[in-house]
Amino acid sequence: MFSFKKTAVITALLLIMALLLVGCNAGKETAQPVTDNKKNNKRIVFVSILPQADFVRQLGGDRVEVSVMMPPGANEHNYEPDTGQLKALSQADLYVKVGHLPFEEAWMERFISTNRDMLVVDSSQSIEMIEHNPHIWLSPRLVKIQANTISAALVQLDPENQDYYLQQKQIFLKELDKLDQEITTTLSGVKGKSFLVYHPAWGYFARDYGLQEVAIEEHGKEPGAREMSRIIDYAKKNQIKTIFDSSQHSTHSADAIATELGARVVLLDPLPENYMDNMRKVAKTMAEELGRE
């Protein structure tokens, strides 16, 4: 009898503990195991930044599982991946790098040594760079070139589904053409104007749509007193009343110049999760701000 009661008590305690564990985990998101993706024949793709993840998902559809190395808010100059990311990378089929990002230049050899079987593709190939400016994803026209590169890599990994990837690419390219036309129309009223930014992320965007970017920061460094004075004089001469910045960078210099000019600081996101919507928002914001000057 004693043995039976003891067994019953232990069973009851184990049941309570199991229920408590379930309750504690309720509502928490858990990452899908990489092994599950392998079983589902999904290609495991790693990218450096959020916009690239959007591109790969558009091009790969339900045949890819994408992971991003740099989380939202991270700075491409100093971000360091954690051990969990490196472990997951060991099972990746493909790494799509932006090309010329300081983060990539610091870590790419380590990534490759982690997974020698992983295909590594540079999305900046076939793109003429502006002074090693890595921000090629902020030009819809250059994203079309990147899309061709990424799609070709997916076909190389999974040739049996070539027709599917090519169909996805055509849909994405048409959406990029539509976005390009919308931005051109939105910014047509401010064409030829200069805009002041903290970090020089928008050079390709400016070139595409007839604007001129003037940056406060250069090569990840704050400007000295002489450079600050030059920028302030330029802004006054051109009646610039808005300084564009981002949440990924310090706003100290931008705030100081804004105070001197009687201008305001407006944030733009150069590392969006939803590329299309963000680029429309950027164009609208620029048109409104530059239209006031």
Detailed description of the structure:
This protein has a four-stranded parallel sheet with strand order 2-1-3-4. It has a four-stranded parallel sheet with strand order 6-5-7-8. The termini are far apart. It has eleven helices and eight strands. Helix 3 links the parallel strand 1 (43-47) and strand 2 (64-68). The protein has two domains: 34-183, Rossmann fold (3-Layer(aba) Sandwich); 187-291, Nitrogenase molybdenum iron protein domain (Rossmann fold, 3-Layer(aba) Sandwich). By secondary structure, it is an alpha/beta fold. It has helices at 2-25, 34-39, 50-60, 83-89, 102-114, 140-157, 162-186, 203-208, 225-237, 252-261, 275-291; strands spanning 43-47, 64-68, 94-97, 119-122, 194-197, 212-215, 242-245, 264-267. Residues 1-35 have low confidence and may be disordered.
CATH topology of the largest domain: Rossmann fold
| Total number of strands | 8
Radius of gyration: 24 Å
User: How many separate helices?
Assistant: 11
Q: Please state the average pLDDT score.
A: 87
Structural class: alpha/beta
The neighbouring-strand order within the major sheet is: 2-1-3-4
CATH class of the largest domain: Alpha Beta
Oligomeric organization of the protein chains: single chain
Q: What distance separates the N and C termini?
A: 89 Å
Shape: globular
Can you say what the CATH homologous superfamily of the largest domain is? Nitrogenase molybdenum iron protein domain
